[in-house]
Amino acid sequence: MSQDLSRIRAFVQVFDAGGFSAAARQHGRSKALLSKYVTDLEDYLGVRLMNRTTRKLSLTEAGEAYYREASQLLQQLDDLDASILDQTAAPRGLLRVSAARNFGEMILAPAIFVFLAEHPDVTLDLRLEDRFVDLVDEGIDVALRIGAAQDSSLIARKIADMQHSVVGSPAYLKARGTPRAPEDLRGHFCVVDTNFQGQANWRFIDKGATVSVHVSGPVRVNSPLSARDAALAGLGLALLPGYLADPMIASGKLVSVLADYVHTGSSLQAVYPHRRHLAGKVRALIDHLVAWFEAHPVS
């Protein structure tokens, strides 16, 4: 089998290089050996794959068909080898990670810093910003996002569940009243976080069914921290992730409403571009984050 692969690889290398001499120089093998391998392959198949002259090399019709399949097969084998090596080798190299600023600073960074301490050969470029980041154009290895990946060109892996709460300040609720059902939100001022996946469409569970309520208000922000501050200032109700809402609820500065209609929780997703195989450093980080958030759940 190894000899068969050597013959196939020699055939592909010779055509890719444009000739036997060029292939011999590129791959450190003798021209005579490459010629023997290609001849042996043709003899085995019983067809001529290449037309050879002193000045030009071209593929026969059978050679073109064989080249297409053989080159794909060798690429798959090379990718498989690289994937296994990535899995067994210690993570190393530069790791570019993207996340929203507030979540990254408060929740994500401590988890990643533990990962770095455990893998000293990895260097980190952590980019925390409240905007949509194009992973391919900006060379990002993995982005941590709350909500499902909407771009079909990306792969998403769930890291942890994330819960949300609708909250308002005591002063706001005293002045405007407390909503008793999701539909009541239509009569309230609501702070819209444009970075939130649903933006002005808040989802709830009512009698086992998911309902979506379109909300509006005088304040639109692009940061959950700013949405929290707007709610604290009495400017309206806000839909906040648990890591921001829970401390404020516990202190009495904000009040949870519609607790019987628990907002359909989203999830923290690791999102990365489609590739034939996932780099070991990225796989190691994602595995670490899954274990970290299992041990340190985010409410």
Automatic annotation (TrEMBL):
Gene3D superfamilies: 3.40.190.290, Winged helix-like DNA-binding domain superfamily/Winged helix DNA-binding domain. PROSITE patterns: HTH_LYSR. GO terms for molecular function: DNA-binding transcription factor activity; sequence-specific DNA binding. InterPro entries: LysR-type_TF_proteobact-type, LysR_HTH_N, LysR_subst-bd, WH-like_DNA-bd_sf, WH_DNA-bd_sf. One of its GO terms (biological process) is DNA-templated transcription. Keywords: DNA-binding, Transcription, Transcription regulation. Residues 1-60 form the HTH lysR-type domain. Belongs to the LysR transcriptional regulatory family. This is LysR family transcriptional regulator. It comes from Devosia nanyangense. The lineage of its organism: Bacteria, Pseudomonadati, Pseudomonadota, Alphaproteobacteria, Hyphomicrobiales.
